[in-house]
Design brief:
2 domains; elongated; alpha+beta
């Protein structure tokens, strides 16, 4: 093994995933999937007093960290990457009981995170209900003739979280009159006029809006005046 391909220093105990077939210099077992270099010669894990450890592949940072914290004895497993001409970390060897304890800690954390996600989802749902109620109330204030069921439907549609609709805009969240009127007008346009049919028949959007503008204004005016 050349100096350029020597395992990285300062990582604690190192175990090497063999790239070439090697046998233990002490017990002659092999070829070895994992080996320890002692005095420049390979030894199997049993002869290196590491045979009782279990391999934990890299990938789960929290589990790896906790396994090493829990394990009295551990080693870093590396493999030589010929293309990069350097050793790459593959995982760690830890005590089996330590790995089990670390897994339990991670499961407890995951359960805590799950509960926190559930609480956050419930909080957001409650916030959404309150906001939809406020939006619907503002619709009914501005348009007292708008049926309650329709006001609720418009508010729910406009304020759907993540939709990017007017109710989720800054103006919508502030219940500005312009945002509320815009949401009601959009509902009237799609539900109470032939606007969608015009679009489907190939009429350009600006022209379709022009054709139904009177119907929208008439409905909005009737809903406003009903109070």
């Amino acid at each position: 093994m050349t100096a350029s391909s020597a395992p990285p220093p300062g990582t604690g105990l190192l175990v090497i995933q063999a790239v070439r077939k090697k046998h233990c210099a002490e017990c002659r077992s092999g070829p070895l999937p994992l080996l320890v270099l002692e005095g420049g010669v390979p030894r199997c894990l049993d002869c290196a007093d590491l045979g009782h450890l279990v391999f934990l592949p890299r990938g789960d940072t929290a589990l790896t960290r906790r396994s090493r914290e829990e394990s009295t004895l551990s080693a870093v497993v590396v493999r030589f990457d010929r293309r990069r001409s350097r050793y790459e970390r593959q995982g760690v060897l830890v005590e089996e009981a330590a790995l089990a304890r670390a897994e339990r800690r991670c499961l407890l954390d995951e359960e805590a995170r799950r509960r926190r996600r559930l609480r956050d989802a419930e909080r957001r749902a409650a916030e959404d209900v309150r906001f939809t109620d406020a939006f619907a109330a503002e619709i009914r204030r501005l348009f007292p003739g708008c049926p309650d069921e329709r006001a609720r439907a418009v508010a729910a549609h406009a304020s759907l979280r993540g939709s990017g609709r007017v109710g989720r805009s800054a103006a919508g969240r502030a219940l500005s009159e312009a945002a509320v009127v815009s949401a009601v007008a959009a509902s009237v346009r799609h539900v109470d006029t032939p606007y969608d049919q015009l679009l489907m028949s190939g009429v350009p959007r600006p022209e379709a809006r022009r054709r139904i503008a009177g119907l929208v204004d008439e409905t909005l005016g009737r809903w406003r005046a009903a109070g």
